[in-house]
Amino acid sequence: MKVLIVKISALGDVVHALPVLAYLKSADPAVEIDWLVEKSFAPLLEGHPLIRRVHALEMKSWRRQGWKQAVVGTLGVIRTLRRERYDLVLDLQGNSKSGLFTLLSGAPLRVGFDRDGVREWPNLLASNRRVPLTAADHHVGARALALARAGLPGGNAAPLAGPLPVDAQALAKIEALLTEEGLTGNPLVVLHYGTTWKTKLWPQDSWEQLVALLAEKGLRPILTWGNAEEETAARAIFAASEGQAVIWPRGSLKELVALLSRVDLVVGADTGPVHIAAAVDTPTVSIYRVTDAKRNGPRGEKHIRLQVDLPCSPCLKKTCERDNECGARITVEQVLDAMATLCPALSSDP
């Protein structure tokens, strides 16, 4: 059997869908699995032992070149998909874009969410088996597995996160950089400030207070970032550490996976690096304001999810007049206590 997974974006959502791979292989060890994803996230999946082929979409690049190139590029991908003659397509995205590729893939069985589960209603036109979700499918990872079970029954229980293999070459580079920075001792902690929405962010001054307290304990937190705005914030957080923290150089996605596999703890908001850390079995402390920790957060004993205690949270708002109040509801002390629970060495006094 040949199966195509359609999970195009974003980084955290792609990571959340990884347990589907293990489930499908348990249901049919001979199954061949391909994945359709945005090009920027393709390195996360390339070389994965459970994936035969990664189809990379370049939608952003095509749109920049004009609508004609977008049409040409889209049609080219569709032709490639149809040549594969898939038996089953799992549309784990649930929007109009994923629906287009699902519908035109040519697969006889196209599994998607029902009306209550799709993100955009035109997606309903693409599937010919629509799966209703139950209360047990509240977590985003469970939603993906519900579709996988409907498409290929009989598999075993899947892991809560991953599997996500670590590239050996990327890991060797990370080990060399850690040695160069004198970061070979324990514990190693990554702090990741950034996320996609302003209302998901934990306030920068809270990060500054946290890094100062960690520096007082003699720790050298690693500050990761993904764009210019996040780099600016990382530099301000670095300044609060009085030179103890390390601003990590931005590398490839495979190198980020390797770094997050190598450290002892990752702290961040509802963001891709936190979910990657969970997929490589690294403990996490994650902060949730407008999104739902029970739906999006890493699961299991190695992970602590902190949810804002306002009655309106989670609200899914990208702007809010109570943004400052909401951000302050999770204190530095709460985060530090959670970190110490998962990494007892952090509880010791300087």
Task: Note down, in words, how this protein is organized.
- With 350 residues, the protein is an alpha/beta fold.
- It folds into two domains: 2-151, Rossmann fold (3-Layer(aba) Sandwich); 168-347, Glycogen Phosphorylase B (Rossmann fold), CATH 3.40.50.2000.
- 40% of the residues lie in helices and 15% in strands.
- The chain contains 15 helices and twelve strands.
- It has helices at residues 11-16, 19-27, 42-45, 59-64, 67-84, 96-103, 140-151, 168-180, 204-216, 228-240, 253-262, 272-279, 293-296, 323-328, 332-342, and strands at 2-6, 32-38, 53-57, 88-91, 109-113, 129-131, 189-192, 222-224, 246-247, 265-268, 284-288, 303-307.
- It has a six-stranded parallel sheet, sandwiched between helices. It has a six-stranded parallel sheet with strand order 9-8-7-10-11-12, with helices on both faces.
- Helix 9 packs across helix 10 and helix 9 (204-216) packs across helix 15 (332-342).
- The mean pLDDT is 96.
- This is Lipopolysaccharide heptosyltransferase 1.
- One of its GO terms (biological process) is lipopolysaccharide core region biosynthetic process.
- Its main location: membrane.
- It is found in: Cell inner membrane.
- Keywords: Cell inner membrane, Cell membrane, Glycosyltransferase, Lipopolysaccharide biosynthesis, Membrane, Transferase.
